[in-house]
Amino acid sequence: MNGQDLSEPRLEPRQKRVMRLFINSLAASAGGGLTYIRNVLPHFAKKKDLLVTVALNPSLRREFHDLPEIEFLEIARPAARRFWREQSQLPSLIRERKCDVLLSSGNFALRNSPVPQILLSRNSIYCSHDYYSDLIARHEYRMWLETRLAGFLASRSVRWADVTVAPSHAFAEDLHRWTGRPVRTIHHGFDCAEFFRDPTPLQPAVQDKLAGPAAALRLLFVSHYNYYRNFETLIRALPLIRDSMKHRPVRLFLSCKLAPGANPGAYNPQRAAALVKDLGVEDMVVELGGIPYRQLHHLYRQCHMYVTPAYAETFAHPLVEAMACGLPVVASDIAVHREICGDAALYFERFSPAGLAQCVMDVMGSDVQGERLSAAGKERSQQFSWQVHVDQIFDLAQSISFRS
């Protein structure tokens, strides 16, 4: 053989291509949208072979001062014209930065994206019959019309995007039935170490409100006031819980205030506030107002049970946070809640105050039941990971970028 090497020639490893990702987070202002962007950006920043540009509202820029790896574009935009401004301004910004993939994180896609586009759809009200019926019952006809228009654009956005991603299987199925288009599920995550990291105590004013009677049953609901979180069903359950608890005080802590102008959006809390007075439960409802996200774990740990009567959801981050804190969960019986909590919650019919009250009493009436839910919740919360979520989004972005 004359010493010749007849083996296959060795190939040099293929050089990895640096991907440029553009994230449109202009819709992130409160609630789940803000929770999402706060949690995913640190993980994207750590990705090798990835350059990230984020479009966001200037009011949020200071939150991400410790992420020098990411380029931030501060774009002020009036909420009423957000969609049209994005359609006109973002394509040129994406081209200028020679991005490979667009991640639209706020329900609406670009009509003519210059690059492959992933749409994160996470607003369930657009395809919720309950929500539209609720608006009619409240005589919110203008909001009904505006939501229908936004829903039309959200539906078209699913068609404009290359891939649409939902944060739960249940919501993905709703989107598929609504639009007729395939929708991929990538669960939102939870970072236990990060969630519990901040030792900063709650503000003294909040601590004073939490003080209350030492023996009180402390129920917690974390949400800004809006209609689809169904506050009124929860408020109607309070007299029933009070009557069943006999001599034990009951307190419901809300991370909002039932006052006009005190919450994001145009939702009017006056009906809920009037209901509190009409039912004579003023002493039971404690309006804490907004709590900084990094301090929420202190609030959860000062309560006995988490309750949510929401009739529309896409993922429900507070459920995972409550389970991680060991709180038994009582939740309305909707598909998303069952998917997220599994057997770590008790469920009631979503518009039944009596059903909600009975679930609370079932937990309080059995130490075994409460301990079971607490243990199951802690285990369940570990199944969600922001790192896994970002890895899956990154893999998806690579797949549509490199085949384009």
What would you note in describing this structure?
The chain has 404 residues and is α/β, with parallel strands linked by helices. It has helices at residues 31-45, 82-96, 129-137, 141-160, 169-179, 192-195, 204-211, 231-245, 270-278, 296-300, 317-324, 335-341, 353-364, 367-381, 386-402; strands at 19-24, 50-56, 71-74, 101-104, 117-120, 163-166, 184-185, 217-221, 250-254, 285-287, 305-308, 329-332, 345-348. β11 (305-308), α11 (317-324) and β12 form a beta-alpha-beta unit.
Strand order within the widest beta sheet? 3-2-1-4-5-6-7
Largest sheet: 7 strands, parallel
Strand content: 5-15%
The secondary structure category is: alpha/beta
CATH superfamily of the largest domain: Glycogen Phosphorylase B
Q: In the CATH hierarchy, what is the class of the largest domain?
A: Alpha Beta
Morphology: globular
Number of domains: 2
Q: Which stretches are low in confidence, meaning pLDDT under 50 for 5 or more residues running?
A: 1-15
Number of strand segments:
13
Distance between the termini: 46 Å
